[in-house]
């Protein structure tokens, strides 16, 4: 938890089932219906959340939980914003925090749950900061981790790579060695946009002093040269041709042809992705083989995005974030009760056991049974600074402009300077 306190700086940057009294949306018989949206479209998370909903219903007679999973980008960018604008029809929903949450709070869409989750906030510590605005709590995380390169240990050995890269120069050496062995070095789902953007994020993370990043997040100021340097480094990286053929049209996480599927099936040696990737790969293998018991590949290894020698960034810094839930402003009290249950030690321990992510409630880390998630957990503990995903940190307006600029650069249409200028222009509209 001490490592996660860095997120609090960057953002200034669980307990039992509770019986409920009827409230909120109800039928003639007084029943309460909670509408819950999340992004766990694949197993094991899909079934896990259904189980949690059923348990809550059983412990709270008269409460009905309608839980639905949606694809991440559609949920975040379209479904949730549109539904919140209606002022009804959504109670508990996926929340990524920071700038996006602040905009929802300003619009009056989110319930202040500070008093009802005070014990959880005390237990979670700094990791809850992205779900707070001006000292008030508007959501709680259930998962927090960092991203890095997931890699195929067998292909690394085949290419003669004996150590994982710790510097950018060493990463280039690994790319060259993989190419020499006729192995695609890196898979990227640039067709979905955000996986491409995360390369710029990491170059900025390792180029910029942490104080510069904190100031940029708090004040939306992007004058430091390190932001342009990040684009220049990305240009050089793309020019090295580390990615699979057709990477600009490749999706990230659905099917064998996605970047996750390419890594899972041995078509590339690496993919830069978050802590959820092993679970995604396991789901893809289940779909492709028809084997419901298929698991993530056994060849997986993990390493943090390498340091850049001579740069101002913290060489151990990590880029990360979490998944959480918020209650809409019009949700009944039972919504907060359900959120309390989701963040309980019992549920969080089981969440760790299924390998869907890294639990956040103290005492639940004992449930991390997946060796892949243990790699991420260890990496998180080794990071002296953790920066929240930049599009989340900067908010929808600036983050969206930033992502569009990065994707244009990825496609050979933009410039390093244009990314930063688009961010400044977007910030000026706020």
UniProtKB/TrEMBL annotation:
Pfam families in UniProt: SBP_bac_1
Family matches, as InterPro entries: Bact_solute-bd_prot1, SBP
Alphabetized UniProt keyword annotations: Signal
Leader sequence segment: 1-23
Record PANTHER family: ARABINOSE-BINDING PROTEIN-RELATED, BLR3389 PROTEIN
Protein name as annotated: Extracellular solute-binding protein
Species whose genome carries this gene: Microcella daejeonensis
């Amino acid at each position: 938890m001490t490592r996660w306190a860095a997120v609090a700086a960057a953002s200034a940057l669980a307990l039992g089932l509770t019986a409920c009294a009827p409230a909120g949306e109800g039928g003639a018989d007084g029943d309460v219906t909670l509408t819950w949206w999340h992004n766990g479209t694949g197993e094991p998370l899909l079934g896990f959340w259904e189980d949690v909903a059923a348990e809550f219903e059983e412990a709270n007679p008269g409460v009905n939980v309608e839980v639905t999973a949606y694809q991440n980008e559609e949920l975040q960018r379209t479904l949730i914003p549109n539904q919140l604008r209606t002022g009804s029809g959504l109670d508990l929903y996926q929340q990524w925090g920071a700038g996006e949450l602040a905009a929802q709070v300003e619009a009056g869409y989110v319930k202040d749950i500070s008093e009802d989750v005070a014990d959880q906030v005390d237990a979670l510590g700094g990791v809850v900061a992205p779900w707070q605005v001006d000292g008030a709590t508007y959501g709680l995380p259930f998962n927090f981790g960092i991203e890095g390169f997931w890699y195929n240990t067998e292909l690394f050995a085949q290419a003669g790579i004996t150590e994982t890269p710790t510097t950018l120069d060493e990463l280039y050496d690994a790319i060259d060695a993989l190419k020499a062995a006729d192995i695609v070095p890196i898979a990227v789902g640039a067709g979905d946009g955000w996986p491409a953007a995360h390369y710029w994020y990491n170059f900025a993370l390792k180029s910029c002093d942490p104080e510069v990043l904190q100031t940029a997040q708090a004040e939306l100021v992007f004058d430091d040269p390190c932001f342009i340097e990040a684009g220049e480094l990305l240009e050089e990286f793309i020019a090295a041709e580390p990615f699979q053929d057709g990477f600009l049209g490749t999706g990230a996480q659905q099917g064998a042809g996605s970047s996750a599927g390419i890594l899972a099936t041995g078509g590339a040696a690496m993919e830069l992705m978050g802590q959820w990737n092993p679970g995604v790969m396991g789901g893809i293998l289940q779909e492709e083989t028809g084997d419901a018991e298929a698991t993530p590949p056994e060849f997986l290894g993990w390493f943090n995005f390498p340091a850049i020698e001579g740069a101002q960034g913290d060489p151990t810094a990590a880029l990360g974030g979490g998944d959480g839930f918020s209650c809409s402003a019009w949700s009944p009290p039972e919504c907060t009760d359900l959120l309390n249950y989701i963040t309980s030690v019992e549920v969080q321990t089981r969440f760790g056991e299924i390998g869907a992510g890294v639990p956040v409630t103290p005492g639940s880390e004992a449930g991390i049974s997946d060796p892949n998630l243990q790699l991420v957990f260890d990496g998180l503990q080794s990071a002296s600074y953790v920066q929240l995903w930049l599009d989340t940190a900067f908010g929808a307006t600036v983050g969206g402009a930033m992502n569009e600029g990065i994707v244009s650069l990825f496609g050979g249409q933009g410039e390093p300077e244009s990314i930063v200028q688009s961010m400044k222009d977007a910030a000026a509209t706020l």
